[in-house]
Amino acid sequence: MKVACLWSGGKDSCLACWKAIAGGLDVRHLVNFVSAESGRASFHGVRRELVCMQSEAVGIPLIQRETTWESYEKVYRGVMHELRETGIDGLVTGDMGLPEGRAWVEGICSEFGLRALMPLWGLVPEEVLRGFVDEGFEAIVVCLRADLFDGKWLGRKVDEQFITDLQDFRRDPSFHICGENGEYHTFVVDGPIFQKRVSLTHGDKVWREGYGFFDIDQAKLTQKAMGNEKA
After folding, report:
1. What is the CATH number of domain 2-117?
2. What is the Cβ-side half-sphere exposure of residue 26, based on CA atoms within 13 angstroms?
3. Which listed CATH number (3.40.50.720, 3.20.20.80, 3.90.1490.10, 2.60.120.10) goes with 125-223?
4. Which of 4, 39, 108, 169 sits 20 to 30 Å CA-CA off 149?
5. What b/e string do you get for 143-152 counting C-beta neighbours within 10 Å, with b at 16 or more?
6. pLDDT at 170
7. What is the DSSP letter of 11?
8. Whole-Å CA distances, 217 to 114, 201, 204, 220
9. Taking residues 72-79, what's their average pLDDT?
10. What pLDDT band is residue 227 in, cutting at 50, 70 and 90?
11. Whole-angstrom distance, CA of residue 160 vs CA of residue 75
12. Cut 0.90: pTM above it
């Protein structure tokens, strides 16, 4: 089956893409939406050029479209139409457990005869996060809620210690360890589907409107170290 993968640049969409490929699906495109105002990926706040760099590193062509809050659904539908016209059969997303989000995606996909495929749906969140690390992916925190986290978390690597430290927040039953409720967002720099590594060379911590951002303004693609790939 030929599919496209909704790609935010973060861990969930990346892991969903990896699972789709491992499951035998033919991922032809990554699909990404950026703010027409800021030129940054929606929610994650990373510059559009960085998402393009990820696409090059992974080796899967990127479809990237500008949107506003008002035009998002219209632009989204336009991309679904474009995918169907080019022979794509389904859309892979990193949705994990928000019923309203699933219903929205499935509704629009069905309008264009596309299958909505959600490899992470219904899985245990902590196992998803550990699986991401265990598979050899690398990501850093690029956005977080200022009422939950302090600046020490910005730019932090997602690893076993990161998962351990997140346990302190689980006293709040609404806290989602994978950040599904917007607690934090990540940017993936390497992993088993990456042919090259996205090496970050500079970033600043920025706070605005109740959120903290690790604003990466310098990065480059580098060759992966021999033996770094996970079999």
Report:
1. 3.40.50.620
2. 6
3. 3.90.1490.10
4. 39
5. bbbeeebeee
6. 85
7. H
8. 36, 8, 8, 10
9. 97
10. low
11. 38
12. yes
Q: Which pair of structure tokens corresponds to residue 92?
A: 């892979």
Angle at 174 between CA 172 and CA 180, to 5 degrees: 125
Mean pLDDT along residues 17-24 = 98
Helices marked H in 143-210 — which ranges?
160-166
Q: Which tokens go with 87?
A: 């022979």
> 206 pairs with which residues across the strands?
213
3-class DSSP string for 144-211: EECCCCCHHHCCCECCHHHHHHHHHHHHCCCCCCCCCCCCEEEEEEECCCCCEEEEEEEEEEEEECCE
Can you give the pLDDT at residue 226? 64
More confident residue, 41 or 159: 159
Which residue, 194, 182, 126, 118, is CA-closest to 158?
126
Task: Write out the two tokens for 71.
Answer: 């035009």
Q: Return the ∠ at Cα 115 (arms to 60 and 128), rounded to 5°.
A: 65
pLDDT reading at 223 higher than 70: yes
Residue 39 clears pLDDT 80, i.e. is over it: yes
Determine the residue type at 183: E
